[in-house]
Amino acid sequence: MTDSRNAVVPIREGILVALTRQLAITEKLVSQLSAEALYKLGWRYADGKGVTKDYAEAAKCFLRAATQGHAKAQGCLGWMYAEGKGVIKDHAEAAKWYRRAAEQGDVDAQYNLGNAYFESRGVSQDYKEAAKWYRKAAEQGDAGAQNNLGCMYTMGLGVLQNYDEALKWYRRAVEKGHAIAQQNLAHAYLVGRGEPQDYREAAKWYRKAAKHGDALSQTNLGVLYHRGEGVPQDYKEAAKWYRKAAEQGDAEAQFNLGAMYHNGEGVLQDYKEATKWWRKAAEQGDTGAQAALNKMK
Question: What is this structure's pTM?
Answer without folding.
Answer: 0.83
